[in-house]
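Re: that chain you flagged

S.,

Sorry for the slow reply, it's been a week of failed gels. I finally had a moment to sit down with the sequence you sent. For the record, here it is as I used it:
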Amino acid sequence: MSLSPWNRRSLLQAGGISLLAGTFPPSVSTSAWGATLRKPRIKSCLVLFQAGGVSQIDTIDMRPQGPVNVRGEFSAIASKVPGMPVCEHLPMLAQQMDKVCVVRSMYHRMLCHNPACYCALSGRDVGESKAVSSQTPATPDDYPNFGSVVSMYRPAVTGLPSFVSLPFLLFNGPAQTPGQNAGLLGSRYDPFLVEKDPSQPGYQIDELQQRDGINARRLAARRRLQQDYNTHQTTLSSTRDSARLNVYYRRALSMLNTPRSRSAFDLAVEDTATRDRYGMNVVGQSTLLGRRLIGAGVPFVVVYSPVKRIEGLSWDTHTENFPKLKNDLLPPADQSLSALLEDMDQRGMLDETLVIWMGEFGRTPRIGYTQSNNTSNQTGRDHHPYCYSIVLAGAGVTPGSYFGASDKDGWYPESSPVHPGDLAATIYDAFGINPKQTIYDTLGRPHQLCEGEVVSGLF
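Prediction finished late last night. Pasting the structure tokens below so you have them in one place:
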């Protein structure tokens, strides 16, 4: 398992300084940006990111009256909300549709996974040459994930990480998918990454377990020793980067010494019925862990699923679209998302938490139609960023509703188009963060935080 960036060994050893130097933003404090903050309407956001691209036509924006090569093999069933049908293989979600808003008019122009994920997770388009590059890599100059921005402006209370992602990192081939980290803000605002399957027996975060004989007093002593060491390293301690490493040390020690922080990651305290309701698989237990982290006070959590690197699953259904959806993809999605909505509603968590269920794009309305650099045969659907659907819940979202609409066969938005940049602006606005403000990269260069516009009436 890999935990980043707060790996205990690297953080509590002075030798880690040389590895982490140069990764912090310039000396502009968040208090200097304080005028751009307003009273937040929400306290937290949980993103359930469906990697690979969900077929909206086969799930939540169906075309039961369309031609056979559009409507596909699945039937639509009535949900708890009249006029909001869903796929027959989403029976549990059908009973929770009174809690969600389906945005049917999302769009962008990124045809391949890495640039599309970057756009979906940061709200930014890449350049024309990279828009169709399947392995566009992550770089330090990328615009940040939504969670990194929230981490900077709305940090968690002491002892908790401000941004957590799990249970894996997205890759497309050898290239790490951009948009998952803090990018130009510096690694100080990267997520606390947990790469481990929480459905496995004995699941725990080893780095958050204190070793035998290492109590709070000994950890404090080690911290003082590290501080003394740095003090005597005149050149090192005089640098701005060295001073900012203290943030890492304080956070690492705070997490190790705070029972609430360790407890937030402990699924063993959940009763068997709750764990079974979410599903005893990596998707279900990762979703439950996301709820626990939000409940503990983590402002932003991203749960990636299905889990291609662990179970060989992906929403990227170029071939055998219908059997893959029916047998592998929809059952855990139906169970986990419906359980989350029901659970959070009963706990009163939806009042101040935004839940987003989304992928990087949708799938082509016409079966077997190819428009990306992949090959789709007559059993699959290709990438389709030009119109797709996402699910929102909580945070003032109008429950049991649609926002926007797709055209007759679902190729393009017919009304109220929403770009991921607009979604980003709307998320920041809900957190009381001015989406048009200036942010600075690690070299002190100014950038506009967001190019999108706040979507009126979305939430």
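What I noticed first: The two ends are 37 Å apart (CA to CA).

Talk soon,
D.
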